[in-house]
Design goal:
heterodimer; A: 340 residues; mainly alpha; ABC transporter involved in vitamin B12 uptake, BtuC; 0% strand; globular; B: 251 residues; alpha/beta; Rossmann fold; 2 domains; 9 helices
Amino acid sequence: MSANSTVAGPHDYLRSQQRWNSLEIVFWLATLLPFVLAPDYLSLASQIAITALFALSLDLILGYAGIVSLGHAAFFGFGAYAAGILAKHGWGEPITGLLFAGVAAGLLGYLMSFVIARFRHLALIMITLGFGFLLLELANSMGWLTGGADGLQGVRMWPLLGFFKFDLWGVTAYWYSLIVMFALFLVSRRLINSPFGLSLCGIRENAIRMRAIGAASRWHVQKIYTISAAMAGVAGALLTQTTETVSLGVLDFQRSADILVILILGGAGRLYGGLIGAIIFMVARDQFSGINPQYWYFPIGILLVAVVLFLPNGILGGMAQVARSERWRRWTGRLVPWRR
Amino acid sequence: MTAPALSTQGLNRRFGSLVVANDIGITLPQGARYALIGPNGAGKTTLINLITGMLRPDAGIIRLGGDDITALEPEQRVRRGLVRTFQINSLFPHLSPLEAVTMAVCERQGVAQTWLKPLTAYKDAIDEAYSILESLTLAPVCYRITRELAYGQQRLLEIALALATRPKVLLLDEPAAGVPREDSAELFAAVANLSQDITVLFIEHDIDFVFRFASRIIVMVDGRILVEGTPEEIAADARVREVYLGGGRHG
């Protein structure tokens, strides 16, 4: 990205693209702050971590491979129900439950990917939307399995690692969600920085040219869609396990729409966009709904329009633009001489 | 004699009542340099689309090195060594040239499926990409975002992407399209310097270059082949003069 890196060799350039930067480390350290600064808000923090993971899963397909989805809650909900039904029927061990839900959602995503890989743009919006509605109605009608509109009752989780109980204050819930989210973030990061990740960007940038360089685009799309579905399923399972209940809301269109808003707000295709978006959206929702529980979407709407108007690439996109600007370079160059 | 690098036989394609390819039969020997010329709308780009599989022929056979590839998908043809460039830049706007060409190399090597190791671990792919870019004088700009490159540089990147696939047969669709005449020398040099192992069919409107570089010229008019021959034969052909050279470039 940097304009004066022409002197460096190609290996140095690519390595510098992938290196951990100091802001990232600060970000991850900051995720520990709620334990100290806001112990009353750990349940919210845990919800944020789960939403961030869900947004990250959408970022992999939308931000990187350019696959639009308005029905990603399908996989979130499927994972949530998978984990809930497993726990209800006597297996309440969280980590295997998480894996089970991830595999289940991944399988569903794999099946879906055969359809997804054939379409783009508007057609994809329709297909994913329809698929989301389909799954919601299925869950609604299969009350014997899902509890239907009453929600799934009787989900009892065993203590994490046989020792840490899920407490009322959300202490276990937060560090559990945070660790799972961080682990899958690391997986995503590696994925994005690999040859596979580069090819995903190629599909987003120009699908036709990808065919003309002999790329296995269809298989790439199927693969990332499966991975993304599995991650969304894990996020859903985390919600089930930390709240010990599942409602139809996990499959709701509103959830698919919210997660898209969160990703666009934060900045798609930037790995951290979904995480930043989740923090802002969830905190804003918490605060606004405290002020006015009925109309809290009003300020969210204003926020969204403002971001799209002034920061078309999301909050992180705007920040990256500032960081690239000449004035900022000069300014930070004086402060931190090692940053070239 | 080995099989021709590329041949077509009886290719037909129509859009409604408009015949865009009419019984096209061409044969390119190994290592050949053939030019495809003809007035606008003659069906030159359509022929490239048919050969590379981006369009399906209504009838006819396409052979690559003797194998029938008529039923293959475009990307399968590329993996067998049949590669094209585009008349209108078809690049990856937000990737740098180095990333784009490395990606093409990785796809060719089959490592684009893998994500256990970071891209930087595939040093030979990166080196190969860099040397391709260097050979096309793109090394100084290979870290910039493609969208920000000068137009002529983007045209060179078109060729770089094709070369990264290690083509056996390369179809160049107006490599210097849109480049001002005085700047086109670099592009023509790039085409002229292509390895002799690569069989090249190119569409070009710059007649000087066509006559200097092509060993044979195919002239297309209205979806069919009017005549094929050496530059001398084409220059002397009355019909060609009439429909193409005499009638002006846009006739």
